[in-house]
Specification:
84 residues; mainly alpha
């Protein structure tokens, strides 16, 4: 996937579903299917974020994303500035 907007939209969708399952699991921690779905979404989310950063630059900071030299976080458009 080389289209940054489509990839960012997919990240948002998967992240929303993961947060929703997280809230569900807070209330029903013994639900094995929900936990399996959450773990699948978490892996997919990590993959999508890595793919985005490899092609379009850092997505988040504070120790979650690595930067090449020189520090590039402030030199790139912010994720929300990259268009809708």
């Amino acid at each position: 996937m080389k289209d940054g907007k489509k990839l960012l939209d997919k990240i948002r969708q998967v992240e929303f579903a993961a947060v929703d399952l997280n809230i569900y699991l807070d209330n029903f921690p013994d639900n094995k299917k929900a936990l399996a779905d959450y773990n699948t979404l978490s892996k997919q989310l990590m993959y999508l974020k890595r793919e985005y950063e490899a092609n379009f630059g850092m997505l988040i900071n504070f120790g979650f994303s690595q930067s090449e030299y020189p520090w590039s976080w402030t030199n790139q458009p912010w994720p929300w500035e990259r268009g809708n």
